[in-house]
Amino acid sequence: MQNPAVGAAESLGRQLPSHADLNLLRTFLAVYRSGSFTAAAPLLGLSQPTVTAQIRSLEQQTGRELFTRLPRGVEPTPLADELAGQVAEPLDALASLEGGSGPLAGRTAPVHLAGPSELLCVRVLPALVPLIADGVRLRVAQGLPEPLLEELRSGRHDLVIATRRPRGGSLASTPLADEEYVLVASPGWAERAAGDDVCTALREVPLVTYAADLPIVRRYWRTVFGRQLTARAAVSVPNLYAVLSAVNAGAGYSVLPRSLCQEYLDSGRLVRLHEPEEPPLNTLFLVQRPGSDTNPDVARVREHLRAAARGW
Fold it and tell me: How do residues 221-239 score in pLDDT, each as one tens digit?
């Protein structure tokens, strides 16, 4: 049987030019995952100028820029995304076979976690407080499911919480929790919209939504009322916290995750306009990057989230 270390090294060699130095690739991956030369330096045990010089050397070897330099940190180029996708798993495998030491494995590496911004703030980060107090370091990113999953495939994230199951079988995912959606408005609008036929009553109430194509509200109308939504958005803003703020201020009605607005419902600042027998649910999935278990803190975060999600 072939030694796994040899197999990983041969795999890495097939993917890259022979002149690519393994140390340069380790430096590249540390910068890619940490988001800056400065953050990568202590992970690698190098000075920041050395990290900069090594990335410049690798860019000279590839003949193209790998990172766009920003006022704070760096932004990977498409080439960097592609390169990270090629080298992350073999380098993680080598780090694991070396005993889990170094900047790419073990407790020294931060856990890169990503998901919807509202869920991260309301559920995820509060749930991970005990691990943070125990020394786990997190690097958190927010965004939409498909871009985050593509970044996970390229090695930029270790764990992604997605609002839909990843397509294909290349990524392992497990159901994390079901998120309930509720139809809400401020008390003033709720009083004006009271009636037996909620859909008819809401025709004169402005609709607030986070996307112009109204995906959440359309789904609610289809699954709960069994009809097409005909309303147009009075306000569209790409952030559910902003939608919540607008509805709470009296801008109109919307459909929101219960986790986001439960406090407002409990205090009476928002009113639930309809209580269906079977409320619409959206399943959240926890997706893990292959090879990321070489960092034991990834497994700790994963299991802690799964345990916490039982109470969501």
Answer: 999 999 999 999 999 998 8
Closest residue by Cα to residue 146 from 130, 165, 127, 170:
165
* CB of 156 closer than 8 Å to CB of 112: yes
In CATH terms, the fold of domain 178-282 is D-Maltodextrin-Binding Protein; domain 2 (3.40.190)
Instruction: Indicate the domain borders of the chain.
Output: 1-108, 110-171+289-312, 178-282
Cα separations in angstroms, 55 against 19, 68, 70: 14, 12, 15
Stretch (H or E) spanning 38: helix 37-44
Which residues touch 207 (CB under 8 Å, ≥6 apart)? 214, 217, 231, 232, 233, 234, 235, 252, 253, 254
Q: Across the chain, what does the average pLDDT equal?
A: 85
Report the alpha-carbon angle 72-76-82, nearest 5: 165
Contacts 24+ apart (CB under 8 A), 125-132: 127/304, 127/305, 127/308, 127/309, 128/301, 128/304, 128/305, 130/304, 131/297, 131/300, 131/301, 131/304
For 113-133, b/e burial (b = at least 16 CB within 10 A) is bbbbebbbebbbeebbeebee
Please give the model's pTM, rounded to 2 decimal places: 0.68
Other beta carbons within 10 Å of 103: 21
Report whether pLDDT(252) > 50: yes
**Is the fold of 1-108 the same as that of 178-282?**
no
CATH 3.40.190 fits 110-171+289-312, yes or no: yes
Tokens of 284: 């959240």
Domain 1-108 has CATH 1.10.10.10: yes
Phi, psi at 230, each rounded to 5°: -110, -10
